[in-house]
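User: Quick sanity check before I run a bigger batch. Here is a single chain. Can you write out its predicted 3D structure?
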Amino acid sequence: MEFNYDKENVIVCQLHKPYNFLQFEFLKFGTEREHLKEYTENDKKQRISEILELKQQGLSNVKIAKKFGVSEGAIRKWLKAEENKN
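Assistant: Done. Predicted structure follows.
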């Protein structure tokens, strides 16, 4: 039997430790979209505001990136986009 898993068909599990071994317990099938956070325009503005504040405080792009869980390149790109707006 062959199973195809893609963005529209993902396995949803939870960690379970009934005895001495940790294992995955199947819950259901779902879609990727159900598990990804969707950012609103307000969320994006808030994030940029926080990044600008941290940059003004003297934090490096690398440290800001770690705080937000993104790459240093993403921070650089967002800061450059803000510079181009002004």
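The mean pLDDT is 92.

User: Great, the batch can go ahead then.
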